[in-house]
Structures
1.
Amino acid sequence: MANSALLVMDVQRSIVDRFEDGGGYLPRLGEAVDAARTAGLPVIYVVVGFRAGHPEISARNKSFSAAARSGAFTESDPGSEIHPEVAPRPGDVVVTKRRVSAFAGSDLDLVLRAGEIDSLVLAGIATSGVVLSTVRQAADLDFGLTVLADGCLDADLEVHRVLTEKVFPRQAEVLSVAQWTKSLGA
């Protein structure tokens, strides 16, 4: 596990706020973060973010054009902050991406290569967004992959189930947070 890192993706205030309770999502994700730190694994936070005025977003981009219209996910937007329940600590890396995948428009690959990381543990919101896109791209880049099924959250429970039970296992090991933390000896 020395070459692994935990990616905590898109767990930003305005994204988390879209979910009523999340079935204890943030405390469970906090357990994964704590277990990674205890095991000495890097915790890398991935956030979606844009410059003021959103010059990175085309009007043709269905996913992000609403963010541009509303002024969301800029440095001045408090909703773009990582949720305080799982906030980074000194030494944690925060990577800003410009699209859905954690790799798109970010320096994530550079950070991973510099850290000689070849295996990723993925958690985040949404399962059908950043997690799916990152699984696909990371698999194509030959990273070993683990997805924490209950460390991911999606507005559509059926889509979450199909992805974690049928799609992700083709390219990743899919575990619960409890199973993963136990495998670390935490």
Note: Residues 5 and 42 are 5 Å apart (CA to CA).
2.
Amino acid sequence: MASISSLGIGSGLDLNGLLDQLRDAERGKLEPIAAQQQQQESRISALGSLQSAMTQFDDSVANLQNASLYESLSASGGGETLSTSVDASAQPGNYNVEVNGLATAGTLASQRIVAEPDQALTDAERTLTLEFANAPEGEPTSVDVTVAGGSTLGDIRDAINAKEGVGVTASVINDGEGSRLALMSSETGEAASVTGMTFETDFFVTDPAVTVSDPADAVEGVIDNGGQDAALSINGIAITSATNQVEEAIQGVTLDLQAEGSATLSVEQDTLKVREAVSGFVSSFNELKGTIGELTAYDAETGQAGELNGDRTVRTVESRLRSVLSGGVPGGEIGMLSEVGISLQRDGTLELDEDALSEQVSGNMAALGEFFAGGEATTGMAGRVGEALGQMLDDSGLVSRSIEGAEGRLERLGERYARMEQGVERTIDRYRTQFGQLDGMIAQMNQTSTYLTQQFANLDAQLNQGN
């Protein structure tokens, strides 16, 4: 039988088109599996959204579970004079603060040196010694800076600034008549002040074009402004500080001095943080409820349903949380969420009564903390909600198992799809072989038909000649 290189050549039939139609018909068997894969992918995505919303709610629950929240303090009343920060060791109290002077960094400027900016001031490598007469114990009282020969005033400045741990920042200042080498201590306070600059003999070149002003001249000579410590008093007690950040003068409170003046400082319970934590708890739960509503919605007009409509996992999550939130915390002064100003609405959301919460925050903080964070022998409301969420969110919990189950089904559907797809291709290959055989057979039959037709025509011609 003749070999056919392309279907349809031998028979003249559209066998390729017929083969494509058969392939489409065979692949139609894959559509139900593809639809199931899409369904499982949508469910996995929806469960991921549910898990994310539950995790965010769990974060807000953890804030309320922190017992230190109900003991946190804040400071107020510094005004323009000072700002404050408070840590856990602070104690409530009122303080009168007088800031009499801010800490400043010491400055020291050399005598005026009249020279061109690029004028060399050294004839050889020299040493510049910076002196710190009041350096704290253990700190160096002087620092040597090596200055290369032929250095300009700018080069000297750069050499100082390049010296690690030199304790000052150098600059060049021109007052219109000449330039000075100016130093500013890196830190504030009297002890950090630079008090002198000592040069080696012949530090400056003796070029007549270079004039060194008389150091004794009050205007042209060395200018020394020593650094000052901050001076303040707290409730009449005098305090000095090398910096404008005064720590532990008041236990657990850091004062950042900003201007001279008076301030009345109050350290008291930070009720704002508690109100924000409770409000965040309510808002986060309602966001979770909104996510669940979207995932389980059903539109009767279009017949469209959310990915988790009727899903057992969602029903269990809602039931567990509703049970915990509507339950109480026995043994404490506050036993129910409603006493805090939080009520469960008919649509399943929570509503917060700000006035009722403020009343508890202002006058009953200890009981509020015990209700949410619990005590030595009791688990608070936040702990109970957190435990329920943890059981559902951990690796072996309800939500994780649901996601793993959907992922497993998706994997099995993928394997089934691959097997059926291979089966379709094998079927199409079998059809292609059969069509090739058919094409070759028809081609051979056509050749035979043509041959016979020719033979009959020749025979007929011979018969006609005989007549």
Note: The radius of gyration is 45 Å.
3.
Amino acid sequence: MAIATINPFTGRTEQEFEPHTDAEVEERIAATHAAFAELRRTSFAQRAEWMRAAAQLLEDDVEKLARIITIEMGRPIKGARAEVLKCAKGLRFYADHAEEFLAPEQLDDPSAVGASQAGTRYAPIGVVLAVMPWNYPLWQVLRFAGPALMAGNTGLLKHSSNVPQAALYLDTLFERAGFPAGSFHALLIPASRVEKVLRDPRVKAATLTGSEPAGRSLAAIAGSEVKHVVLELGGSDPFIVMSSADVDRAASVAVTARNQNNGQSCIAAKRFIVHTDVYDAFTRLFCEKVAALTVGDPLDEATDVGPLATESGRDELESQVADAVAKGAIVRTGGFVPDRDGWFYEPTVIEGVAPGMRLHLEEAFGHVATVYRVADREEAAAVANGTTFGLSSAVWTTDPDEEDWFVENLDAGAVFVNGMTASYPELPFGGVKDSGVGRELAAAGIREFCNLKTVWKG
């Protein structure tokens, strides 16, 4: 894939970028390694001052950044603007809480281990490589970079090749905010050159958000080098609606849960698992609301759904739906490529998806929703857990016993009750099974790339 801004609304290439040479990559790794020696010696208070300055820069540049996001990957401008502001909030969260999250801890009774004092403390580990996707081109990066730099680490970013302008903005953000030169650098390189960077002894760990195959590849390389990784991979999140649910509210939220960011979100609800008693009512409302979405120019404030980010992504979605229909599934609304420029696919609801269809097990990375009818909570959980993924989940019920039962029995990194899955700086984020390992955000996220050091004093 060329390193280029290709506008998904028009399909036209707007700007191309030369990859960094081997010499330029070496220069950036060396600078980031040198910056670690300086940054780790600074105080939390100093880092927090710089981090708040970075948050302010994001807010000052919100309109410019929102436009970059929209032009590079097609996200409707309202959502792009919200992403920038969420990033600023996330950076401020870690500026406020990093010292608390990484505070030393002491045993109440050190004599139990034969010591006068004993406990733990957190220490930064060095340069961390982030391999990031295009779908949230700022948030995915900054939810790593904020805690990593507040812990005293430095970062290298290999961003997706179709969002180079976002990558180059992030390349200078932290230095502009006051962090030591080299604290964070972007590498404009293709995926084929990631392995060499990861094997560099100056790079101590890696984090990747992206596809399952990409995660497996990076983890294999890191494992051979005995380097820690955090992986946030795909998801096929269930959205369960039980008979006691507020069906009107669930259907309204379901539309946003599936179609946010043009449906291109790992944590977007993808499989709608509905109790038979409310199946017809929910599906009718859901289809009506999906059909009413405004599809169009993502720079238009009135647009709800824009184009898919890439032509290949649009074609993959079309292929998954065609496979399901050929094997007996029924399209309730949408299900076609409209006759217009750009990489559009009509928002779609499809039912009758069954084993043997690609949509039953694969992640649909775009605005296609599958609806399943179930008889009880046991069947709902069986369908929900019946994939290799386990990122997040949502359950709609007003029965307290049912709420607790689903929280206990769903195989996922998160369960949202009577709401849609979202990521918050205050809560840990990550999955199980093929959805990844490790956690981002909250205290867990900042501790992932720290050495938890035991300290014993006689």
Note: The domain at 4-233+435-457 is CATH 3.40.605.10 (Aldehyde Dehydrogenase; Chain A, domain 1).
